[in-house]
């Protein structure tokens, strides 16, 4: 790792100020960023540690919206009675990220802002139609937030402060785990709302997390397994690597979507 | 260089570190606590697992400065007055190690597991140990040791911590 200054702000305004430093970059749980820096794939001048800011942590429900602070750790989301009660699929997703030690450090905001094409959380944000709140006072719909591999709508120096998830009638996340990395080889998040269904896919596409429009249309008209009869996702644009070909991933998209729909009951 | 201080195995310690200094470097190189091992240095293997404020973390993937003010427990803090902890004793009893390199991380990780789940199933132990790799492939006896330690701690609730 190249050396850097470490800022440890105690409030959001202090963090925003610290982010004005030259080559500043936010540090949340560091479970992706620290390995990246060890490989010298980045050289920030200042890292701004967000984990000491109380207002960025915590989980609260207000009506049909579950709000999770950006610096809330995976272990806290997985173990939260509030999340388990409102959106059990989200708690289950958090509880299967990485391993226990990773979940004790990694945060939801870090995962969403990093937008790894195989990360779990982006599929939940997109599948539930979450709203992402930022330090610039913006509220960005998940549909407009994820722009491609490791790309989001966040501006330079803008911090993701919270994610607000609409509470669905039912939801499920199916992850086909790549056993070495523990990321999703393919993951599918299905959510059923009164006005329709959403299907978000991670791990599969060269463009990062995406919605499977054809499956959404069918499930919105009739939320049942039979609504997906004969439907398959094309292999074009799917990731191909030593773990699986584009056709293999496309096939998994169909399988996992069906499993998620079945699990929604 | 920022000055940091924390409590390690119950003792207050302090030092000067660079921003990039990892917790595991601070423990091993500054404090001389070399029981915490660096296996992969890529957060895969878990040999560097320590407890920070009671919870398991990979000390190779946490900056020392972000542990400023924390309570840290390493393998050196587990034996008390020459007597091994319940988890350590179970590893000895069930031959839960071969070369022993992964053992400090295994012991700390299982200690954390038994904090959150006093009665884990075998499947839950194996699931929990996903982030701890043993290259001697000694998992079977490690899992046996974890289950035995859990039973022992349940039988002696006063000794559990």
Please provide a written account of the structure.
Chain A: InterPro entries: CO_DH_flav_C, CO_DH_flav_C_dom_sf, Diverse_Substr_Oxidored, FAD-bd_PCMH, FAD-bd_PCMH-like_sf, FAD-bd_PCMH_sub1, FAD-bd_PCMH_sub2, Mopterin_DH_FAD-bd. Chain A: This is Carbon-monoxide dehydrogenase medium subunit. Chain A: One of its GO terms (molecular function) is FAD binding. By secondary structure, chain A is α+β, with helices and mostly antiparallel strands. Chain A has 3 domains: 45 residues, Uridine Diphospho-n-acetylenolpyruvylglucosamine Reductase, domain 2; 113 residues, 2-Layer Sandwich (Uridine Diphospho-n-acetylenolpyruvylglucosamine Reductase, domain 3), CATH 3.30.465; 95 residues, CO dehydrogenase flavoprotein, C-terminal domain (Enolase-like, domain 1), CATH 3.30.390.50. Chain A is built from 11 helices and 14 strands. Chain A has a 5-stranded antiparallel β-sheet with strand order 4-5-10-6-7. A 4-stranded antiparallel β-sheet of chain A has the order 11-12-13-14, with helices on both faces. In chain A, a hairpin with a 6-residue loop joins strand 11 and strand 12. The radius of gyration of chain A is 18 Å and the shape is globular. Chain B has 161 residues and is an alpha+beta fold. Chain B has 2 domains: 75 residues, Beta-grasp domain (Ubiquitin-like (UB roll), Roll), CATH 3.10.20; 70 residues, DNA polymerase, domain 1 (Orthogonal Bundle). Chain B contains 5 helices and 5 strands. A 5-stranded mixed β-sheet of chain B has the order 2-1-5-3-4, with helices on both faces. In chain B, strand 1 and strand 2 form a beta hairpin. The model of chain B has no long low-confidence stretch (mean pLDDT 95).
Put the structure in a nutshell:
The complex is a heterodimer of chains A (265) and B (161). With 265 residues, chain A is α+β, with helices and mostly antiparallel strands.
Q: How is this fold's topology laid out?
A:
The complex is a heterodimer of chains A (265) and B (161).
Chain A: E1 5-7, H1 12-18, E2 24-27, H2 33-38, E3 46-49, E4 59-62, E5 65-69, H3 74-79, H4 81-86, H5 88-94, H6 100-103, H7 108-114, H8 121-128, E6 131-134, E7 139-141, H9 142-145, E8 146-148, E9 151-152, E10 160-166, E11 170-177, E12 184-193, E13 196-202, E14 210-211, H10 213-221, H11 246-264
Parallel strand pairs in A: 1-3, 2-3
Antiparallel strand pairs in A: 4-5, 5-10, 6-7, 6-10, 8-9, 11-12, 12-13, 13-14
Chain B: E1 3-8, E2 11-16, H1 23-30, E3 49-52, E4 55-58, E5 71-73, H2 86-93, H3 103-116, H4 122-128, H5 139-155
Parallel strand pairs in B: 1-5
Antiparallel strand pairs in B: 1-2, 3-4, 3-5
Helix pairs in contact in B: 2-5
């Amino acid at each position: 790792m190249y050396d850097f200054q470490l800022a440890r702000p105690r409030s959001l305004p202090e963090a925003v100020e610290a982010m004005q430093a030259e080559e500043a970059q936010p540090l949340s749980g560091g479970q992706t960023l620290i390995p990246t820096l060890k490989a010298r794939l980045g050289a920030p001048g200042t890292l701004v540690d967000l984990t000491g800011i109380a207002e960025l942590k915590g989980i609260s429900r207000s009506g049909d919206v579950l709000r999770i602070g950006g610096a809330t750790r995976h272990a806290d989301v997985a173990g939260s009675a509030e999340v388990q009660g409102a959106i059990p699929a989200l708690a289950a997703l958090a509880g299967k990220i990485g391993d226990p030690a990773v979940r004790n450090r990694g945060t939801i905001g870090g995962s969403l802002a990093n937008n790894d094409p195989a990360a779990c959380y982006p599929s939940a944000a997109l599948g539930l139609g979450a709203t992402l709140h930022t330090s610039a006072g913006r509220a960005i719909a998940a549909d407009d937030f994820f722009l491609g591999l490791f790309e989001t709508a966040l501006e330079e120096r803008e911090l993701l402060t919270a994610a607000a998830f609409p509470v669905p009638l039912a939801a499920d996340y199916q992850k086909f785990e790549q056993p070495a990395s523990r990321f999703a080889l393919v993951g599918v998040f299905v959510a059923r709302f009164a006005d329709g269904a959403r299907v978000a896919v991670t791990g599969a596409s060269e463009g990062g997390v995406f919605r499977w429009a054809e499956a959404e249309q069918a499930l919105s008209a009739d939320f049942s397994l039979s609504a997906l009869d004969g439907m398959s996702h094309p292999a074009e644009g799917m990731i191909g690597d030593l773990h699986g070909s584009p056709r293999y991933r496309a096939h998994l998209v169909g399988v996992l979507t069906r499993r998620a729909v079945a699990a929604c009951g | 260089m920022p000055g940091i201080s924390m409590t390690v195995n119950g003792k207050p310690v302090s030092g000067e570190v660079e921003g990039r200094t990892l917790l595991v470097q601070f423990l091993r190189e500054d404090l001389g606590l070399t029981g915490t091992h660096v296996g992969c240095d890529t957060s895969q293997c878990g040999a560097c697992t320590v407890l920070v404020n009671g919870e398991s973390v990979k000390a190779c993937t946490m900056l020392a400065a972000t542990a400023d003010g924390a309570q840290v427990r390493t393998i050196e803090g587990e034996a008390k007055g020459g007597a091994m902890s319940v988890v350590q004793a179970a590893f000895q009893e069930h031959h839960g190690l071969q070369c022993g390199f992964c053992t400090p991380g295994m012991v700390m990780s299982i200690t954390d597991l038994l904090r959150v789940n006093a009665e884990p199933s075998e499947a839950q132990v194996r699931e929990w140990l996903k982030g701890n790799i043993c290259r001697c492939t000694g998992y079977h006896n490690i899992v046996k040791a974890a289950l035995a330690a859990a039973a022992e701690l349940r039988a002696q609730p006063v000794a559990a911590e």
